[in-house]
Structures are given as C-alpha cells and as structure tokens.
Amino acid sequence: MRIALLSRKRTLYTTRRFIETARTMGHEPVVLDPMKCFLVLARRTPQIYYGAADRPLPPMDLVVPRIGASVTEHGLAVVNQFDMMGIPIVNNSQPIARSRDKLRCFQLLTRKDINIPRTVMARDPHQIPAALEAVGGPPVVLKLIRGTQGIGVILAETEQAVQSVMDTLWSLGQTILIQEFISESEGKDIRALVVGNRVVTAMRRQARFGEFRSNLHRGGGAAVVDLDENYRKAAIQATHVMGLQVAGVDLLESHEGPKVMEINSSPGFEGLEKATRLDIAQIILEYAVRYARRHGRGSWRKN
User: Fold this and answer.
1) If 202 and its partner were Cys, which of 192, 239, 298, 301 is the partner (CB 3.0–4.6 Å)?
2) What is the pLDDT of residues 151-174, one digit of tens each?
3) Total-model pTM
4) Which domains does the chain have, with CATH numbers?
C-alpha cells in the first residue's frame, strides 16, 4: 500500500517512525510537505501536484496527516483534496479543524456532557470581573483559541494581570479564553493516546519547578499511568465527539473526576514510546491500514 504522510519535515521523530514502520510492514511511505502541494480543481477531476512537477501525484491508498498548527489552513485544504479524490484519511480535515479551534472544541464537548474546565470567552474589558467570577478565579488560565505545546497559555493570578494581558492580546487581534484553574492538578495532567475505540496508553506529565504547563516541550517529566475507566471513557468520548480516529487527549485530574483540557489531532509519541516501549507507530499504522482496506478503492486491492 502506498501511504502518504503529510509532514513538513521527514526528520521529525514521528515522521521518521512512520517511515521506518511502514517499510517494515511492507508498505511504501511517501512523505509530502503540504506546503509544496498545489491543488487543481476541475469538473469531477480534483488533482494534487507536488513541487515543480508537471503531472499529478501518483495514486495513493492512504493518507496520514501530520498537520502542524502553522500550516493548518493550507494543510487542511490538501487533506480535503485527498478526500475529494476518494482516498481514505486518518484523520480527516473537518475533525482536525474542530480540535484546533479550542472554543469550538469546548462547545462540542459540553453539548455531549463531557466535563471541561469552566471556560468563558469575553471581548469587552467591562466583562472581565463577571468572567472571573464565572470561572471561580483568579487565578485563571488564559488561552489563545489556537495554540500548541503550551504556546499561548498564561497563568494570571490577579484581576489586574488578567486585564493587562487581555488588553494586550485584544489589541493584537487575538481571541482569548478565560479558563478555570484546577489547583488540585498541581501542575500535572494526563495525556491519553486514543486509536480507534481504545486508549492505547497514557502518561502523567508533571511540570518542572516554577512552571504550571506540563508539556514535555516545556521541560516537564512524564511517567506511564494505568487509567481507570472514567478517564478512559472521557478520552474516547472526546475523540469521537471531534470525529477523530487518532488523538492525544489531555485530561486534568480534578475533585470532580477527569476534565478534558485539549485534544491533539496530530499527537507526538516520542515520550510515550520511550516510556512504554510500545511500538506506537505500528499501532497507528495498523489501524490506518485496516481502515483503508474497509473504505478505500486503491491499488492494494490488486496486490
């Protein structure tokens, strides 16, 4: 099977692991930088060209997007073009877009009765006192609607700090969420990796001293954790509400049980593989290949 991996760099850990694993499984991985794809639309014949090529890409049997936040708009257009061409995709463009927009994500989760930290979107400085009261703060967490790896996440400990940060970010045209600070989480969260209908593995991440964000990119530590049923159920439900097939779901441990904090449609798994010794690249690709065989119409049927 010819598998298109949409990735800006083939040297990234997850991309390298997918390349190695696909070859070991007997497939042909093709790494495509979505920013080098250009789309041709004509009646009933959507096509994708790559780089300076004067002809369309050869047929693909499966697409696995690894779309970074910086290329979301163009990357999603590329994913959607593959979808129009009838090629199975894990994950598709609309679910990726839903999970990337934090406000839309939280709206969908709460509609399905999935617990999240209390969250407010306000746009008028005069609304800030009421917004803080609604989320039980300060302190509160301020978040850009689109951000990744802890970028655009700020802990504001006073109303004055909230006002100052919000005024600055509003002046730059940013939309900000004000979110409840779960003090009992104590700088920890859980990253659960969902593939299909199961949680493959999970780890508890701990922020480094003096930092409240637990992202490994921020120097946090991690340890494998065996989730109880409530946390597994929350992670799987959140993934399905977004329409995703593979996701990294970030959960906070609160006195009320799990609270879904974020859903990542292109989860990295370097830390998880090293901590668990699981071949996560193979688990994801095995799932994706099964999905393609059920839903595709590619050349693999002749093999």
Assistant:
1) 192
2) 678 889 999 999 999 999 888 888
3) 0.87
4) 2-90+282-296 (3.40.50.20), 98-114+184-264 (3.30.470.20), 119-181 (3.30.1490.20)
